[in-house]
Amino acid sequence: MPFIIDAEGIVVRFGDFAAVNGIDVKVQEGVIYGFLGPNGAGKTTTVKVLTTMMKPTEGRLSVGGYSTAEEPRKARDLIGVVQQHIALDKDISVRENIICRAMLHKIPKKEIEPRLMELADMIGLTPYLDKLVGNLSGGWKRKVAILCALMHEPKILFLDEPTAGLDTQSRHMLWDMIRQMNKRGTTVFVTTHYMDEAESLCDVVSIIDKGMIKESGTPKELCARIGQWTVEYDSEEGKRRYRFFSDWYDAQAFVSQVSERDPATRKTHLEDVFLEETGRDNMKVTEKRLRV
Amino acid sequence: MSLIGDTMRVAMSDLYYLKRNLPILMATSIVTPVLYLVAFGYGLGKDITMEGVSYMAFMIPGVVALTTVTSSFTTVANKLMVQKRFYESFDEMLLCPISKTSLILGKSILGILKSMMCGLLMLLIGYFLSDDLQITPMLILCMILSCMVFSMLGVAAGMIVPDLPRMNLFNSFVILPMTFLCGTMFSLDALPEVAKNIIGALPLSQTSACLRAAALRWDFPWVSLCILIGYGLLFYGLCLFSLRKTN
């Protein structure tokens, strides 16, 4: 089955620094694809490349079957983008922002209002349509940005850290919205550094660190790869340590070995996979990178 | 047709902004020129004649020129700077199926409309203050042209200048000196030859010359009009270049 996003050997260099270093991204149509990584891992740069906002230094990319190097315009028509920074005009109303974005995508005038009302009803935005965007809370602004990106009915929706800085209620509200979009047939590419979000929302995830893909697969597959059972216990220095086991009995045998160090057995989470791949001590990782 | 349609699509968000804030935008734009008319026209130049007409009649086209120029430039440059650096909504436009020319023209519309309204208001005030002044089709055409040229400069500045402090620097060292020196309130003949030639080549000097000649029915300076069009093309090229670089 062809991939709706098919990127091979993508490299993005800024001078000597490779922000993205030879990654492959292959996304099947109709999935919610999570792109995970710590701050500065290369998530936003990758999104900029995949959405044609930035040309890669090296590599080949096709979106919806169109090569972005040869037919960028056709590829762009298939995508909707919600950037990490909410890109809305704050001094005009929600309705005006949405109408402007729809007009820029050349949606016929008579289709704009019904489509706007349908989407606004679906995500509960109707009471806010005539409010100034600048007066809305972060969660509602993010909803408006997503609605703007959906007006031209894109086949792929890119969301760059959509829930960054939002409260729990707003995050869950957005997750529901993303699931709804996906049920309507939109492929969703979402970057995040919240593991619970990726685990709850995504069909497939990739973990990127220092510009390279470390792991790819379904959240369950990734957890199984390091061992689906986790035993956590205190080390002699008092730090929490983690051991992973494929078999529950092996995990219990280990627990009995460290019974004096406050052990606990639990299912492995995506967060464990993420920390194993990207390093548990982010400060050390950052220091190492700065030294390089 | 597609160019005009796409230009209006780009301008739409700015037009909504203009509609919401029209009285405030107009009021802030005409305070300074009205003060110039009162202070220099009435206060200082009541009994002065310049190039054969009263100082008030001489000054009004210059004040109209500086109003259109500063209003179009600052409106467009500041709005684009905000949309590009703070709202980041301009980047979204680059993803839409819109040509670069439509983007440039669309982003100029706000400046053209607002500065034309301010310019016409100043012209109306001036019409009642001086009997020598005439509102002619050529005068309106020259105003539209100057609004277009300086709105285009505003787009280029909004694209190129990286932050607000540098934009203020550009305003203080380029736009503000031009508004005073480019024949808006005095004749360039009063300047030393070298300064006269340098300042005379600036776009606002051409605007002042065209508006004054059209308003006072003097011989029309067609060369100035051509130079002004040339500046317009230059600024358009600058916008196109910076847009390509951004892309």
Descriptive report:
The complex is a heterodimer of chains A (292) and B (247). Chain A is of the alpha/beta class. Chain A has two domains: 5-218, P-loop containing nucleotide triphosphate hydrolases (Rossmann fold, 3-Layer(aba) Sandwich), CATH 3.40.50; 222-291. Chain A is built from eleven helices and 13 strands. In chain A, α5 (138-150) packs parallel to α6 (168-183). The model of chain A is unreliable at 283-292 (pLDDT under 50). Chain B is mostly helical and 247 residues long. Chain B has one domain (2-246). Chain B has helices at 2-44, 55-86, 89-94, 100-129, 137-160, 164-181, 193-200, 203-216, 222-246, and strands at 49-50, 53-54. Chain B has a two-stranded antiparallel sheet with strand order 1-2. In chain B, β1 and β2 form a beta hairpin. In chain B, α2 packs parallel to α5 (137-160) and α4 packs across α5 (137-160). The relative contact order of chain B is 0.14. The mean pLDDT of chain B is 92. Classes of the chains: A alpha/beta (292), B mainly alpha (247). The A-B interface holds A 51-53, 73, 76-77, 79, 81, 83, 85, 87-93, 96-97, 99-101, 103-106, 148 and B 9-10, 12-13, 16-17, 20-21, 83, 87-89, 91-98.
Q: How would you summarize the topology of this molecule?
A:
The complex is a heterodimer of chains A (292) and B (247).
Chain A: E1 5-14, E2 17-27, E3 32-36, H1 43-50, E4 58-63, E5 66-67, H2 72-77, E6 79-82, H3 94-104, H4 109-123, H5 138-150, E7 156-160, H6 168-183, E8 187-192, H7 195-201, E9 204-209, E10 212-217, H8 219-226, E11 229-234, E12 240-245, H9 248-257, E13 264-267, H10 270-278, H11 282-291
Parallel strand pairs in A: 3-8, 3-9, 6-7, 7-8
Antiparallel strand pairs in A: 1-2, 1-4, 4-5, 9-10, 11-12, 11-13
Helix pairs in contact in A: 3-4, 3-5, 5-6
Chain B: H1 2-44, E1 49-50, E2 53-54, H2 55-86, H3 89-94, H4 100-129, H5 137-160, H6 164-181, H7 193-200, H8 203-216, H9 222-246
Antiparallel strand pairs in B: 1-2
